[in-house]
# Entry
Amino acid sequence: MKDPIRFAKEAASFSGEFSLAERERLRDELADDEGVVKGSVSYRVEGAMVGGRFALRVRFDANPTLICQRCLAPYVHPLHSEGVLFLARNEAELERWENIDPLLDAIVGQEPMDVLTLVEDEFLLSLPVVPRHEEDHCPRRDDVLGEH
Ligand SMILES: [Zn+2]
# Structure
């Protein structure tokens, strides 16, 4: 994306899919003991005006395999995320916005931006800090051992 603000102005969109194993940063984060990474991300990035500001809507669905920190078994952890990244026209505008709302997700939108890096960032932020099966969904220990 060469010009994110123009992308937002034109309400352009961009979508696609990649496998988690393809992306180095994600591979490092997700590899199991044997270095295997499973799962993929499908994403859509749309330019928009949100509350009078230029913005990118970033949406994705992913199905990474994580290691449950309770039973240490791998499991598929579905992720769905919809976020808005605001695009300021310059540093001064960004500063103004941040003074009003320090938690606003915003950057200066003048520089070329790599869409996949953006999706990666959102993906990493949405990973659970402590991955776990849902309550009472851990396989019994005998079942886990039985798989080997
Ligand atoms: Zn578990």
